[in-house]
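User: Hello, beginner here. Can you help me understand these amino acid letters and fold codes? It all follows right here:
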Amino acid sequence: MENKIAIIGAGNLGLSLVTGLVDSGKYQAADFILSRRDLSKLDEYQNKGFSVTSDNIGAVSEASIVIIAVLPQKIDAVLSEISGSLKADQLIIPLVSGVKVKDIQEIIGEDKPIVRAMPNTAIAIRESMTCIATSDKWKKRIPEVTEMFELVGETVVINEEQMTSATALCACGIAFFLRAIRAASQGGNEIDFHANEALKMAAQTAKGAASLLIANNSHPEDEIDKVTSPKGCTIAGLNEMEHNGFSSSFIKGITVSAKQAKGLYIED
């Protein structure tokens, strides 16, 4: 067995991961085996030096780490397919919402280490927020998984029971924040700016806001207070947004997303 990483289900998330890992400089394209049914969608990656295949069993047999990035509804079939080819010393890292370690062990056995990870698509530019969890039995394998995902963003180790919530806040959260930026750019377009100008301004402003919180380790309200003055335009805009349910809608979106995520993995 070679010291390679197999990506089973090389779709948007799996490809974002390998892009970020290669960009980190610690990995090369030759370190990965990408597997998916439609190989035509991997032509670009094959040209860059990645090994590509539609044979999940073959991919697993050549790897020391197996990352599973399929839909929750598909993982049982994939696990059943590769189960007989997995070795006891292979590390399994599922990037699949709602599927617990015990669910996976029921199919592949209890002798293979399993550590769950939930990144988001910003992993491609090494800006992911990745949540990591496992069962008590495999906590000793968490450091090596953390080391890998810290190459492509920030990580936090959480209890496995929290992983579905992490999906909503961090993985789905990418779309939520992008929609907020889109709304800001539309507002900018309406008041004075061309669409491309407004989008650039909104995106950079959002980046700056997030960077302030991270750099200063501060609370959003602390930074908001710095730009709100009595009878000013900032507080007027904030209050109008709140009157129309901005915060409550955002909160509700995250809670509904978490509820939906819990039902994505449906056992046969």
